Structures are given as C-alpha cells and as structure tokens.
Amino acid sequence: MKLVSTLALAATLALSPAAAQQKSANPAQADAFVAQAEATLARESVDAARMAWVQATNITDDTDILAAKSDARINALQVQYGLEAARFARVPGLSPDTKRKLDLMRGGITLPAPTRAGASDELSTLTTKMSSAYGKGRGTRDGKPINGSDIEAAMGEVRDPAKLQEMWTSWHDNVGAPMRADYAKMVGLANEGSRELGYADTGAMWRSGYDMTPEQFAATTDKIWGEVEPLYKALHTYVRWKLNEKYGDAVQSKTGPIRADLLGNMWAQEWGNIYDVVAPAGSGDLGYDVGDLLKAKGYDPVRMVRQGETFYSSLGFAPLPETFWQRSQIVKPADREVICHASAWDIDNRDDIRIKMCTKVNGDDFVTIHHELGHNYYQRAYKDQPHLYKSGANDGFHEAIGDTVALSMTPDYLIQIGLLDRTKVPSADKDTGLLLRQAMDKVAFLPFGLLIDKWRWGVFSGQVKPGGYQAAWDALRLQYQGVKPPVARDETRFDPGAKYHVPASTPYARYFLARVLQFQFYKAACKQAGWTGPLHRCSFYGNKQVGARLNAMLAMGQSKPWPDALQAFTGERTMSGAALIEYFAPLKTWLNQQNRGKPQGW
Ligand SMILES: [Zn+2]
Questions:
Q1: pLDDT value at position 105?
Q2: Which residue, among 111, 73, 91, has the nearest Cα to 33 in the 3D structure?
Q3: Helix, strand, or coil here: 346?
C-alpha cells in the first residue's frame, strides 16, 4: 500500500508557502523537494496502511471513522505534493528521475480532494461509507439474507433461473441503489480536485498514468479490444446457443443479448462456473475439476496458499516471511464484518506483505491465491527502489504477474504437485475442452474489463450525467458484453455500485490490460523455457531461468517507462492481444465450426 498519512501535512504546508518561489526555482531545488516529499511519503505510508488494514479486516462504526480520517489527511498531503510537483515540473533542466517522480506525484492520486477547507474530510467520509456498505452488503437467497462472499459462490453453483434472478436482483438492489447519491457527490469532489492538479477530469487523470497521453491510452485500449473482439463474439454466440438449449426460449432466446444472471457470476464477468453447461460431449469432459481435487486431497485454505507459495519458490523466489502467515487474513473471521474482496498488501513497503481473502476450497480461489501472491512477490521484488518507484511498471503489470503463473496450472503441473493422477491427464483430443474452460474465464472477461472504466470515464467527463448512470451502464453492458439484466432497471437503481471496484474507486483498465499482458508474459516465459508444444499446455513451473528474468522485470518497479520493463522480459515494447489470440487459435477454429449457421452477435 503506497499510502501516506497524517503528521507531515503541517510540515509540508510550511515548506511551500509560495508558488512564486518555484517560478524561479532551479533543478537543485526541485531535487530537494522530491527528496523531502519522498522521504515523508515513505515514512507516513506505514501507519496509514495499518489503519486501512484494520478497517478492512474489522468493519465497525469506529474503524470506519478512523479510516476516513486517516484517508482524508493522506489525501490532503498527496494533493499538496501534487500541486507543488506540477509547479516544479515546469522548471527547465530537470534530471529524468526528478521529472518522472514529479509526474508520478502529480498524477498518482486515485481520487484527489479539492484543497478548500473540509473537502478532503467530505470525500473520505463518502468513500469509506460506500466501501463499508459494500463490505456489509447482503442479497437474499430463498428470501433469506446472504453475504457477499456466499452469494458470489452461489451464483456459480445454482442453475435454477428463478433463484438466480432473485440473488442477482436482490444484490444489485440492496448494495448498488443506496449509494447512488453518494457516488454522484464523490464524482463532483474528485473532479474538482483533479482540475486543481491540471487534469480535465478524474478520468483523464487515471488515463495519464501510462507513459502516454490520456488520448493515446484510450486509443490503446480500443486497439487491443479490436484485436480480441472477434474471439469474444464467437464465444458469445456459442454460449448463448448452449444456454438456449438448456433453459429454452422463455429464459434465453436464440438471438439478442444473454441474460446476465445465467453466466455463473454476479457480474457476468467470468463464465467458467458454467463450463458444465457449455462443455461439448466427449472432448469437453476434462475428467477433473481443480476444486474437487483439492477437496479430495484434504486441502484447507492455508494449505492452498502454501501450495501457491511453492510455485514461486520453484522459480527461485525466496519463501514468504513468517509474518505473512501470522498476519494475513486467509479465511473469513466468524465474528465480525470484513471486506472479503481478495487483495494483497505491503504494509511497511519492505517485508510485511499479506493477503486478505475469505478463501473457500474451490478452483476459483486457488487461482485467486496465485493472483494475489503475484502482487506480494512483485512488491517484495521492488522493495529496494526509491519509494515513488515502488509500484508496477504500469498497474496492468501488477495485475498480470500472478495470472501469468496461474496459466501454468496445466494438467501436467497438477500431476507434479500431486493433485492429479497421471492416468487422469486429459489427452490431446481434450484440448478443445481445456481451451474452452480457459476462454470462459479469460476471454469472457475482456469486454467487462474494458467497460467498467468506459463507464467511469464518461461519468467523470460529464458525458454521463447522474440522471443517466443506470442507462449508460446498461448500454455499455449491451454494447460490449452483449448481456442484459434479468429484470428491467431504471434510474432508481445503481448497478455499478454492486461491483466492488466502483464503491472502492479502484481503477479497472488495469484488469483489461492484465488479461492481455498475462498471455504476453506467459508466451515469453514458455519461449525462454524452450517449450515447443501447444502454448496452452506449457508450464514453466520449476524453471529458475524464467524466474530470474521475471525478477529482473519486477525489480525495476516503476523506475522506467513500462515499455522498458516489458522489453526486459518479453523483448517487445507494445501491449498487444496477439499472444492471447495465438493461445486460443485452435479454439477459435473450433468455435467457427460450431457457430456455422447460427445467429451471430446481438
Ligand atoms: Zn489483483
């Protein structure tokens, strides 16, 4: 957590009384400002991270208030530094490092508060309230209350459309709708703060964090979407057909969008949970389910995390510190409210790394563990960088590392770790099934990963007005995902609020980038490992050369523009969907055959 806090605020305000001072500032003064700010941020971030941890793992009225206060002070400090950084950035003759750090200080605030009195308190109170409401949110199942983590799991298991509709609707109504007004207020405040820092709006500020202009970044995401869209559409056509076969015309028609609650996930963002519904006879039968294997071998959540650690150790990374095991939240505490949404933490910016999960023994959570540990190993790899560089090359990199590792969880890997019996390895004629299972999660996610921030960019720019929040959301869901809600929505609803990252204000483009980057990284790792078979059967488990080269990229942190980091590991300098397309090429051919003569698109 690169947060900052509290006491330094007074000192900072005293340090920078006049903008006029910086007009005539020289590079040496800019260097001194950066050194002072960086030292303060490094020092103050630790307590702030502790406060955030305590609130996330024990939600009460008191921890909400304390977290909001801590957050408000940090935000004010970051904005203050950001404003100073913007002025110093105009000084001629700056060193490249100082220029980079000034840009990071100005642009690295997710929701900047305006500097006027009381504004940072107001903003933090709103964001803490929304996050906390999400954490405590309940839907209903058969009329009875059910918490977020349980309802999420149930959406993957239940196959009765009426029950799915009840869970979907109750969750979106109970959790999303009540935060609608607060969300609009938050947008106004964050925009005001972003403008003070010189950005058109908060969305433009978010898009500025990629070593290119906001416009270039938006164009980059559109370019990548263009590369992968035909594959998504082929998958959509096939899955809609299968859902129609299972549920009939009254539930899922042969044409038009897919009903969002039928896809095995509350947000229709990943569809792997309904693989059984779409699996083709014969080649679709993989003969095993990772969750079942874990249960059969008596795995508990802690052992699942230990197994995740083993993968990273096999690449040559040092074991997790003892404090990780003492301080992480691996299972949901029975006696208090917590934020179950999985996350990885770096409390002291050195070695106090942790995960926070409400782990269940199933295949999804086994993958999530590898994902979260990817963050922790990244954090530890760049711990010797200066504080402002302790971050991913861009935020998509940070999200991609653990997923790259999880792509290596092939059947052969599962044998190596004793989970799968050698006689149960799916033969080559099951490749379609293996790829389809992967595509249900990885490819299905792509339009969702893109549209969350398409919606927020529109909201922050004012193109989407508060009176049209829901309609704009539904329109993007339809346009990109080709899904529709099971019941009609209107502007008393606020479905975006029922997705964690919206109330938590976590930017989302990073997840879209991570989906393509992880295949780019994976392909590079397999090439380094000398793999010559089909890409999706490659595992680089145990390959220390791959580990060393991966570590070299991770250890760079954010010290250089991301193309330099990408090149260090892959030899390439642009983010691209090409590796993902190559991975799924045999599936695309198969889908095209299956879809022949069927209605396509929506
Ligand atoms: Zn993550």
A1: 95
A2: 91
A3: strand
CB burial of residue 23 (10 Å; 0-12, 13-18, 19+): exposed
Q: What are 305's two structure tokens? A: 């995390």
Token digits for 492? Answer: 């008393």
Helix crossing, 395-407 with 509-528: angle to 10°? 50
The pocket of ion ligand 1, defined by CB under 5 A, consists of 399
Say how many Å lie between the CA of residue 343 and the centre of ligand 1: 6
Centre of ligand 1 from the C-alpha of residue 483, in Å: 25
Percentage of the chain lying above the pLDDT 70 cut: 96
**Cα torsion at 30, 35, 38, 41 (round to 10°)?**
-110
**Rounded Cα gap, residues 455 and 435, in angstroms:** 30
Helices (H), 478-596: 509-528, 544-555, 562-570, 578-583, 585-595
In terms of residues, how long is the chain?
Answer: 602
Q: Which residue is it, tokens 């051919």? A: 589
Measured in whole angstroms, the distance separating CA 344 from the mean position of its chain's CA atoms is 11
Cα-Cα end-to-end distance for the chain: 42
Q: Which residues are catalytic?
A: 372, 501
Strand partners, 94: none
CB-based contact 489:180 (threshold 8 Å): no
Q: In sequence order, what are the residues at sequence separation of 6 or more whose Cβ sits closer than 8 angstroms to the Cβ of residue 265? A: 152, 155, 156, 271, 273
**Which neighbouring-strand residues pair with 356?**
329, 343
At 181 the pLDDT is 97
Report the C-alpha gap between 374 and 309 in whole angstroms.
10
396 C-alpha vs ligand 1 centroid, how far in Å?
9
How many angstroms does the Cα of residue 398 sit away from the middle of ligand 1? 7
Structure tokens of 296?
A: 């059969």
Residue with tokens 């679709």: 284
**Alpha-carbon span 519 to 516, nearest angstrom:** 6
The Å distance, Cα 356 to ligand 1 centre, comes to 11
Question: Which ranges of the chain have pLDDT less than 50?
Answer: 1-20
Which tokens belong to 246? 């299972």
Instruction: Determine if the pTM surpasses 0.85.
Output: yes
**Parallel, antiparallel or unpaired: strands 144-147 and 353-356:** unpaired
What pLDDT, on the 0 to 100 scale, is given for residue 315? 97
CA of 50 to the centre of ligand 1 (A): 19
Q: Is 138 helix (H, G, I), strand (E, B) or coil?
A: strand
Q: How far is residue 375's CA from residue 343's CA, in Å, rounded to a whole number? A: 9
Q: Cα dist. 473→414, 443, 448, 470, 489 in Å? A: 40, 20, 11, 5, 10
d(CA 465, CA 458): 8
What pLDDT, on the 0 to 100 scale, is given for residue 427? 83
| Residue 222, C-beta contacts closer than 8 angstroms, at least 6 positions apart | none
CB atoms within 10 A of CB 206: 26
- % of the chain surpassing 90 pLDDT: 88
Q: Tokens in use for 71?
A: 């957050």
DSSP assignment letter at 533: S
- Contact by Cβ (8 Å): 540, 408: yes
